[in-house]
Amino acid sequence: MEIEREVKKMTLGHDFGAGAACLKCKEKCEGFELHFWRKICRNCKCGLADHNVHMESEESKKVGRLFEDTKYTGLIAKLKTDGVPTYRGNMAAVSMLSPASSSLVLPAFGGTAVQPASSSSCSSSSSSSSSPSPSNSSAPGRSGKPPAPAPPAKVNITPVKGVAVPVNAGTSSVTYEWAPPGANKYMAVRYIELLPPEKRPVKGSEGAEYRRQQMAVQLPEHDQDPTLCHELSPAEVKLMEQYVRKYKDDALGMGDILLPQEVALLRPAGGTGGSVGPRGSVGPGGSVGPGGSVGPRGSVGPGGSSCSHCQLPMCHGEPAVYAERAGYDQLWHPACFVCCRCSELLVDMIYFWKKGKLYCGRHYGDSEKPRCGGCDELIFSNEYTQAEDQNWHLKHFCCFNCDCVLAGETYVMEKDKPLCKPCYMNNHSVRCVSCQQLLEPEAQRVSYGDHHWHAEPQCFQCSGCAKCLMGERFMAVQDKLFCSVECRKKTPA
Ligand SMILES: [Zn+2]
Ligand SMILES: [Zn+2]
Ligand SMILES: [Zn+2]
Ligand SMILES: [Zn+2]
Ligand SMILES: [Zn+2]
Ligand SMILES: [Zn+2]
Ligand SMILES: [Zn+2]
Ligand SMILES: [Zn+2]
Predict the structure, then answer these.
(1) How many CB atoms are closer than 10 A to CB 68?
(2) Are 168 and 105 in contact (CB under 8 A)?
(3) How far apart (Å, rounded) are the C-alpha atoms in residues 349 and 327?
(4) Domain boundaries in the chain?
(5) What is the 182 CA–ligand 4 centroid distance (Å)?
(6) pTM for this structure?
(7) How far apart are CA 16 and CA 74, in angstroms?
């Protein structure tokens, strides 16, 4: 019964995305077909995410499963909010299609124009220009500044400080494929504006594609579900379940945004920071709801805090990212909330916290377990092999081309992938310039630029006097070798 269910699941997995065209290989790939244990296309060897598949619902299911059964208090409360960013299967989309909302949001784009997303410094532009405030005036802490004017009823795109406002020609709508859940719309939009332009999840843009790719790379589905792994033994399944339980309890979280001064209020009394904040102790149900009930406190926190990543000051009026597991004395600029290993923006602010560092899911996994270079799964078996600076399930140290097992065989690494000798000879081997024979992978060779020779006296020799040039000075003229200028002169070209 149990087995039947798993078989069905595997089959379903193999159907997903079948036939989709590869965006990288174009017509060279006949269509996506999942390899039976690698997580790549059998036809072109690219990943599923490189193919033209709509993974939105798969992704949201994946993220849903990731947070399922966690005690991540803040998030669960947040995802249920009836706030403007709608929660649909763990994906939040802020659409600015309605006139009402676009009038609320657009002025912020003016801010973008004068303040390019230099999230790492507090330029004065946002405070000196008539900085827009959402109509519900839910962004607190702008004390000391003149009250912001109410947003215009009709959107009138005027250049701010002479800089043209980059709004999609003629339209007043931008759809984000993701925005911080639970944040008010003004904060969500500011957060996205503070990301590098090429990483903003604007529907149909390069940034949306970046997010799609990172979703696949940073959060491997097979790191969280044993049924998506290939032929685990019952013991491996058990170990993996323990591993998943452990990161759900101790590491996994989703960042959130607030103004720096609002985060300061979440710190324990005294609020001077320094100590590690309490875990998961935000007031039940978010008593300090974003954009909600923070009082009109004008006082800034402890003399202004700095970003845990770049050490530059946090901007008083701009959203800061915080992470429950890191404590409330740590803040990040939106663009600085990155994995400590790959430095990529943590996709959808999903982080793994370990020993004072932020990791993406993939690199957290790598820091805990070896990862198989063949199937990309974490290895829960004691038996595995190390080769070429990578780890491999014993049965997965195979030729990347024909899948034959390479244990005890001659293999060649080609672009970090092992190949068996026949596949290497057929596809990648080069010929000796001198004798014109294919160079066997194990043959000693001399390479000079794109030219290769057997490292033997009869091949690596002077074209003039046939002297062996191994260990000697030589000159190469096209594909001829010479021991001296004299030999070169006496040899017809
Ligand atoms: Zn491809
Ligand atoms: Zn393909
Ligand atoms: Zn920073
Ligand atoms: Zn990473
Ligand atoms: Zn493997
Ligand atoms: Zn092969
Ligand atoms: Zn040769
Ligand atoms: Zn010579």
Answers:
(1) 12
(2) no
(3) 15
(4) 1-53, 256-336, 384-427, 445-490
(5) 25
(6) 0.69
(7) 33
Handedness of CA 239, 241, 244, 249 (dihedral sign): negative
Ligand in closest contact with the CA of 375: 5
| 458 Cα to the center of ligand 8, angstroms | 13
The residues near 45 (Cβ < 8 Å, ≥ 6 apart) are 400
* Cα(53) to centroid(ligand 1), Å: 13
Count CB atoms within 10 A of the CB of residue 476: 14
In the numeric block, the tokens 């993406």 are attached to 360
* Nearest C-alpha neighbor of 419 from the set 404, 435, 408: 404
* 384-427: CATH class: mainly beta
Distance, CA of 401 to CA of 422 (rounded, Å): 10
Q: In sequence order, what are the residues at sequence separation of 6 or more whose Cβ sits closer than 8 angstroms to the Cβ of residue 394?
A: 383, 384, 385, 407
> What residues flank ion ligand 5 with Cβ within 5 A?
372, 374-375, 393, 396
Concatenating the DSSP letter of every residue in 198-257 gives: GGS-BTTSHHHHHHHHHHHHHS-GGGT-GGGSSS--HHHHHHHHHHHHHHHHHTEEE-EE
Q: 411-469 pLDDT, tens per residue?
A: 988 888 899 999 999 988 889 999 999 998 888 989 888 889 999 999 999 999 999 99
Q: Is 105 helix (H, G, I), strand (E, B) or coil?
A: helix
Residue among 471, 478, 483 nearest 493 (CA) = 478
Domain made up of 445-490: CATH architecture: Ribbon (2.10)
d(CA 384, CA 325): 33
Same fold, 384-427 and 445-490: yes
Alpha-carbon span 5 to 22, nearest angstrom: 30
pLDDT digits (tens, 9 = 90+) for 243-290: 999 999 999 999 999 998 888 888 876 544 443 334 433 333 333 333
CB atoms within 10 A of CB 147: 8
